[in-house]
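Researcher: Structure prediction, please.
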Amino acid sequence: MKNKILSIVVFAVAILDCLLALFFSFSFNEEKKDNYIQARTVQEQCPALIADLQSATPESLPKVVETYQTSLRTFNDTLKAAQMQKDILYTYLQELKNLDENSFEAYKSGFAGHADALFARADNKAALVEGFNKVNSFKELASYISKTEKDYNVVKQDYLVNRNYLKAANGLVGRADMINANASANKKATDLEELQNDLKSFNKSTRLENAFVIIGYILGGITLFLMVFFALVKIVKNFKTSYKILLVLVAMAVVVFIGYIIGSSVLSPSAIKAGLTVTGFKMVNAACFTFYVCLAVSILAILGTSVMSAIKNRK
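Model: Predicted structure follows.
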């Protein structure tokens, strides 16, 4: 009876999840997907731009466009400076990675003069020089490279996020500028209204997406809880025959943990475009790793079972 109840609950949860997915997919305008991602990116870093465009009138639009064009030019200059720091650190890392036991001593002895040229435009020159000066042998270099690479990944990630925002903001302001350039007052008013309706629609889609994700997590959590709960009940009642279930659960937890630990903390361009956080991206990596491990184990189990069955049949 309990197994029947569990099956009904899991089936009901799955049906509800599918219905929610269908509702979201039908309410989302695929033709404006890129514009939706653009608006969501801007909303995350500069919600004032979205708010100003939504409240703009044909008369106030030129001022809004001019204000944000000026702001984005300043942001672009800042981004170029950040890119320079990223590139300096990347060049430095590549030099360190190319060192071996034979070239390390020569590189270290000439580092003081080389650092003046390499870090001439670096904001943290003193820290970089001091860090390398503490590396006394080639054996200590690996840990220093690891630490420097983590610092580089943070700089690179911030740069990619800001570059993605600049591209999205320029696109949105560019669309507003094109509307502003309309000679016809009626056309200008119509296009501005369309832009504002799109922004409202995108905000609605964002709220719906967030709600869908939260509900999905809740439903998934309920399903997982019920499965684990009934599995543990079975283990407690008959441990001698069910301890293997506990071992499988522990193994799954270990696999997920390993997948999360080895998952990259540097957001890929697609992850940034999707609006994932570092934690979310590592969770995606953990899920993919777990899937691949489970798939490999399943295939090996099928092959192993087939081989064992063939051997037993021969006997």
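Model: The mean pLDDT is 81.
Researcher: Thanks, that helps.
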